[in-house]
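Provenance and format

Records in this collection were gathered into a single text stream. Each protein contributes a sequence line and a token line. The two records reproduced below are adjacent in the stream.
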Amino acid sequence: MSEPKRPLPNLHDPDTRPFWLATREKVITYQQCNACGTVVFYPRGHCTGCLDGQLVWKDSAGIGTVYTYSVVRQSYHPFFRGLVPYAVAWVDLDEGPRLISNIVGIEDPLRDLSIGMRVRVRWEEHDELSIPLFEPAAS
């Protein structure tokens, strides 16, 4: 029996495709509005601040802070079932975007994770893209 596979994003969505293609090179990208300066994430075709369509792509260093998190203790998806308990967190990247991901590289998410913890990206490679996960940043 084969190992269960992580569900992967759709590479054909026109708004998110550039983000996922950048992950091939292990780069987290986000958008910023040329008109008003609003940082936009998740990727989309218009600014959430002024509704302008002049968004530019920028690269993140992949370092941020845990804004909040939840510990998943039960999962029905075959891939995630073997990972419980695991942490799902909102991470505030230093450049401004807030994204949701898993926190990895910790033994016990109930003990080893806290709001405000500094984290850095760690990549999970797949054939067509990489998934940005986060681990505690070196102090």
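Adjacent record:
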Amino acid sequence: MKNSFLYYIGVVFLIYFGNILFLHSAEKPFVVVLDAGHGGKDAGAIGYSLKLKEKNVNLKTVLKLGKLLEKEENVKVIYTRKKDVFIPLDERAQIANRAKADLFISIHTNSAQSRSAKGTETYTVGSSSANLEVAKRENAVMLYEEDYKTRYQGFDPNSSESYIMFDFLQSKYLEQSIGLASKIEKQFVANCNRYSRGVKQAGFWVLKQAAMPAVLVELGYISNAEEERYLSQDESLDKFAKSLYRAFLSYKKEHDNRNGVVYKGTDLDSEETKSEKKVSEEKKEVVKDSVAKEEIYYAVQFCSSSERKPLDCRDFHGFIPAKEYVETGKYKYKYVYGNEKTFKEGLALRDKVKQKFKDAFLVVIRNGEKLSTEEARKYYK
């Protein structure tokens, strides 16, 4: 009888204190660290037309996003910077690590040598040769630090060999990071009407150091005149912030459910979620009719050069303004002319250009990018 009584007391004790521990865990705020890329002496990328500075676009977006998140119940927002100051690259992730953050979001603005490159993209940590140049550009901020070789253990942001280390990185947070990245890109398409380049992986040092789910968001190409104008408008940054906010709400609800915590955030069945559901419902139609909805046109490549040429070069014999695309190889600068909507019109333009450049050939431009020969074939009729 005595043993039964002690067993009963033990069960009550475990239930009572178990509930206390559970309630304590449930009350722990969800900590999100917002990182505005670059800052201070590091301006980041600079726009070609308006000379817009990336560091300012990033900071404005982060502050707008933070203001929305701070209204959420049981969410604590920490900023790596709230003004125009320089923060070392490794310190950004360490701010999140010291705070034992649940999520790290780094906001950036992209740039490319090709002024036609455009679109949003969201990265998780990893390695991909296709995204190596983007990683090199963002990691180059460490060069502003005098002791960067010691601080970053010999890592050289401009050396391809240094990125081999990322191929062996296995992050237990990768699945969650990819989930958030996907939500962000869907929201950008639904609410900002932007072209999405999708979810990608690259060797970003700031993500590698974060001991929690983490993403790096590229809002668009500041090197593209149209996107630079869009990024310069306060209304546009409001849309980006709201899209990131909606993606966060969806992510946090899943996070809370997974951890047995009652979600108390903004109702996800409101208008914000309806737009996301609409994107999901239309996904099959988008894939089915992708050729019709993508921006496709035909042009003619007539010149390859080892050195950069002006787009109105006299050597182009009036086929100006040309568009420049940078690829690999000795003759990495490719110049194309034209904007023909049909394959037939493209062939006619090719024949015209061949009168001056006998090696000219037809190419396909999709959403601002020149397709490879293999990819372009399906557009030849």
